[in-house]
Amino acid sequence: MGKTAQPYRCEVCGYVYDPERGEPHQGIIPGTDFQDLPGDYTCPVCSAGKTAFGVRAAKTGRYRCVACGYIYDPVRGEPKHGIEPGTAFRDLPDDYICPVCGVYAKVGKSAFVATE
């Protein structure tokens, strides 16, 4: 991954590909720059092709649960759940679950997408 690797937003559905996170469930390891994705890469949400990702996304550090819409914001953390303010999403434990719907639906860290 280059020093200037940026997230890219799908212009069709708004999904944000974050190179810092990759898409391990799709076989794309963290650190894979957008330009290094295979030519046949498609948006995991709407299946639009790689060319639909023409707009760079602002890097906010916030992540949204795709199941319920909860936003994890590193600025505020989740002190009620022992996560200190300033904790980056990538630094959350692997067994992190959505505090809104995760307890019931088993929605874990992999169900979060970067937001703008």
Summarize the structure.
The chain is mostly beta strands. The protein has one helix at 102-105; strands at 8-9, 16-17, 55-56, 63-65, 71-72, 112-114.
Architecture overview:
This protein has one helix at 102-105; strands spanning 8-9, 16-17, 55-56, 63-65, 71-72, 112-114. The mean pLDDT is 83. It folds into two domains: 1-59, Rubrerythrin, domain 2 (Single Sheet); 63-114, Rubrerythrin, domain 2. 17% of the residues are buried. It is 3% helix and 12% strand. The chain has 116 residues and is mainly β. The strands form two sheets. A three-stranded antiparallel beta sheet has the order 2-1-3, with no helix packed on it. Strands 5-4-6 form a three-stranded antiparallel beta sheet, with no helix packed on it. The longest helix has 4 residues, at 102-105.
